[in-house]
Amino acid sequence: MQPYIATTPFGRRPMTLGLISSQVTAKNIDQGARASKWQVFRHIREAKEVLGATDRALSILDALLTFHRDEELTSEGNLIVFPSNEQLIRRANGMSPATLRRHLANLVTSGLIIRRDSPNGKRFARKGQGGAIEQAYGFDLSPILARAAEFRELAEAVAAERKAFRVVKERLTICRRDVTKMIDAGVNQSVPGNWRGFQRRYDAIIARLPRTAPRQVIEALADELEGLWADVHQTLESFVKSEDSNANESHTERHIQNSNPDFNPIGETEYGFRNKNEASGTAEHTDNVRSLPRRDLPLGMVLSACPDLLPYADGGQIRTWRDLVAAADRARPSMGISPSAWQEAAEVMGPQHAAIVLAATLQRAENIRSRGGYLRDLVERARQQKFSVWPMITALLNARMGALEKAAASGVAGGTPGAQGAGASSLEISSALRDSVKKKGW
Predict the structure, then answer these.
(1) Domains of the chain, CATH where assigned
(2) Is the pLDDT assigned to residue 266 strictly greater than 50?
(3) C-alpha count within 13 angstroms, C-beta hemisphere, residue 200
């Protein structure tokens, strides 16, 4: 007759649904199932937090497994061990009886072992003929064998979560270091950018980082910090690229000009790259910086010289200098001029003169390959006080007046009266200024 197996604990310990669930699980062991008890124990140790087992409870489980003589747990073998409390305490490296009872209860609650109590609560085994165990009362290790695959999956999940947590912490640490150092580099090296705004964003993100946080919180903050990193890095990268392209393309532009001296519709040397005249200040011509008018350019004169800027104005009209600056800012992207180059020009020249330079550059856009490099070159000259906007505008006016005079002459010769009047009305500058421009040769 098969021995009766106890299902309820001895004494005042209550019966719970959790105990019933553990017993049901222990019954569902596949025929021929086997598992290395120490391999399963390592999986349990890795997943102890998920299972709710304590460190001291695992020390007791380790001791209990030593009382099972075989290396493997099998469905055919006897899985009940019955050590006394004194033996358990000795193999668990010593603890008080109260501590032992508390952590044994933890193993039962976690579903790692099942109590098989005798009528009087003692642990022992009854042997039959030949020394084979017929009935044992103690701790049943069947749940360890039945849940071996579950413990392995839990251990793998815990290991994956631990790795993900470590990786996201590395991301956060590296990103914090990169952002702080890039912001410092931008500020210390005077790179144009919203560095105060970047610093405020960084401080707001870090302020939400608790001392101890789950992976999901750290991952969300790391994503925000990487977004900030991208903005800061793009600002620095754009500045570096514009500086490099400025140096390379300005050299290329000069080389192209010198290789074809006959191609000079309005002459780069008239207002821009004045290597001998405007920039040096030692030229014999009257258009060097020291001999230029000290007063500001009239707005009407700028608009007459640079009519191509008008389509970018709000409503197609420019009435004030503020309208001119706004129109230049709208035209900037289509010219391929970066925000940093535009900001630097406004800081060095002033917004008004920077807008005039942009309007003149737009007027001659077809003859300038690198507008960004061209603008930065003029900004550098303005920083050295070797540049003025007067030659740029007067050169454009000369070209336009020459074109209008030719058109008027051809109109008269061809018998089309009124052409000269139409040309004069399209270039609205005073006759005194027109005469002055012709006289000085600007």
Answers:
(1) 17-146 (1.10.10), 164-248 (no CATH), 264-440 (no CATH)
(2) no
(3) 4
